[in-house]
Amino acid sequence: MASNVNPTVRRRRLGQELRRLRELKGMTAEEVAERLLVSQSKISRLENGRRSISQRDVRDLCGVYEVEDHRIVDSLMQMAKDSRQQGWWHSFGDIPYSVYIGLETDAASLRVYDPQVVPGLLQTKQYAEALIAGALPETPPAEVEKRVQVRMRRQERISTEENPLRLWTVLDEAALRRVVGNRSLMRDQLEQLVEQSQLPHVTVQVIPFEMGAHPGLNGQYAILEFPDAADSSVVYIEGVTSDLYLEKANDVQKYSVMYEHLRAQALNVEQSRQFIADIAKEYAR
């Protein structure tokens, strides 16, 4: 298969198809688990794309669902094979948020709200180093550097001229005022943010303190959308020990509506760019 196969997305698509076959058969995940003598949680993890799936798993599930069309079985088996390949991020070793990286790599657009820091895709290398070291104080320097390298590699989705990621970012003023590293570093970060905001596929808006309460006070989240209509949108919420991925249409809709409110309450693009530039000048004093 081509080297650009994304194993995360393959697992997700395969899981969606297996769920569809189970529902067509009118079976619950518990019933399938009993037939295959496995745990119900395994079936759930296979269907939500969070677990690697073998061709044997696919064969067994197709048997339970009585799939008679060999073309369908062969297609699912090939997807299972593709899903076990490694993405570019695996070369960096164990990355805690590798599932998210896989989704981001294949996404067509990304909407991000961050109340505390500049989003990873728009960070300078120095800002990323200071932020990761400060947020994870017990992390060895080598691990910090590895995370920074991964973050810089992720930014290729923004810098590439061919099919770049459509990024929309809403920031709270706190993300601009929080001094990560030192004032000089912050000035460089905000100046780069102004520069990046002028890219045709990048939109940056700021919610100033004076706006008061707004729908984003509950915390950071991101909404990923994909080029293939078969891939449903995903809401990603980063956690300390585990991350949350919401894929139900109702959940995605709620977060999408909340994001629209954030965009409406934020300064417009030109006002936001000037707002960031003004704060950058403050750091130069």
What can you tell me about this protein's structure?
This protein has helices at residues 7-25, 29-36, 40-47, 55-64, 70-83, 98-106, 125-135, 141-154, 156-159, 173-177, 183-196, 249-265, 269-283, and strands at residues 109-114, 166-172, 202-207, 221-225, 234-237, 244-246. The chain has 285 residues and is an alpha/beta fold. The chain has two domains: 9-83, 434 Repressor (Amino-terminal Domain), CATH 1.10.260.40; 90-284, Endonuclease, Chain A, CATH 3.30.870. β4 and β5 (234-237) form a beta hairpin. α2 packs across α3 (40-47). The longest helix is centred in the first third of the chain and has 19 residues, at 7-25. It is elongated, with a radius of gyration of 21 Å. The termini are far apart. GO terms for molecular function: DNA binding. InterPro entries: Cro/C1-type_HTH, DUF5753, Lambda_DNA-bd_dom_sf. Residues 18-73 form the HTH cro/C1-type domain. This is XRE family transcriptional regulator.
For the record, the CATH class of the largest domain is Alpha Beta
**Secondary-structure element string:** HHHHHHEHHHEHHEEEEHH
Radius of gyration: 21 Å
CATH topology of the largest domain: Endonuclease, Chain A
Q: How many strands appear in the DSSP assignment? A: 6
Q: How is the main sheet built?
A: 6 strands, mixed
Inertia-based shape? elongated
The overall number of domains is 2
Q: Averaging pLDDT over every residue, what do you get?
A: 87
Organism: Streptomyces regalis
GO molecular function, one term: DNA binding
Domain HTH cro/C1-type: 18-73
Pfam family, one: HTH_31
